[in-house]
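1st attempt posting a full record on here, be nice pls
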Amino acid sequence: MINLLEVVIDLAETIRQVVRPELGRLSSRAIRGVGISGDASFSIDILAEKALLNYLEDRHLPLAYYSEDRGLVKRVAQPEGVLIVDPIDGTRPAAAGFESACVSVALSRVRPASGPESRLRSQTDPGARAWDSGLSVENCTFEDLLIGCIQEIKNGTRFVAERGKGARIWDPGPGQSSPRHRAPTLSPNHDLNRLFWSFEVAGRPVKALMERLAPLINRSGVSGGCFLFNSSTYSLTRLLTGQLDAVVDIGERVVKEVPSSREELSQPDSSGVVGLFPYDLAAAYLIALESGCLLTDAYGKDLGPRPLFGDPEEIRLSCIAASNRPLHEKLIQFVEDAFAGDEG
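the predicted structure (as tokens):
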């Protein structure tokens, strides 16, 4: 019988071992195509994707998978689960050799099909196997996630969670004879003036976004701290280490509610709308919840019923994550106030 927890952890470590020697190399920055989400695929992404494919082909696992570059791939007639893999979350930090790059692997159970199958194919690999009839995963949601693993590529720290069993941190630590396992340590802070938090801008409408985040940046910028890591998984796992109090990603709400934001991203010299997708968040979502964090969308709604797969325009997400409930409630109120002027 396959130990799926071991598979998830081993896959993350395998991808890390392949990618780590390429961190910071100029050759890693070459753009090789465009992924399912519309985000650029760098050379280091292609290397990580190849490591994922090699791993799955070598082991003949009874699992389907979804990756950033290839989308949803059916590998077996009756999959026992679906791996949701972002081989490098934080491609730009990885290409620059920074610490904030992670491998993200989650496992979802499979639900019975209830409608027409979607068809997803990567723009970077026309030969990739498209969605096929008979694979019953179109109804999978965040509630179906069973296992999550995030592996820091540079330092090796690993964050793991199983649904209903909590989260834990595996820290290799310099000079330690054996790995150290520890429980998450969440910040009790709920003072917005003392807030340590992160946000994201890549593929988001920066002008419209910053107009709404500026009051919180100004409020916390001196007595607290605001950070931009270019990796959602790295940011969210900082909640478990106690380094951050919150993660705020309201890009998708800005795109939905501010008409001028799409115009901002449709300019010839713009990257276009990318934002936050389920494959970015799947493992981190489960790990954050199992550690006791609060994580919703930018409206304060639970992400549990949201689909894991589908049209990128329809499944893009926003995220407000906090280390405690009072802080989460204050952040949701801040976001509501920030958008109040857009009504009507």
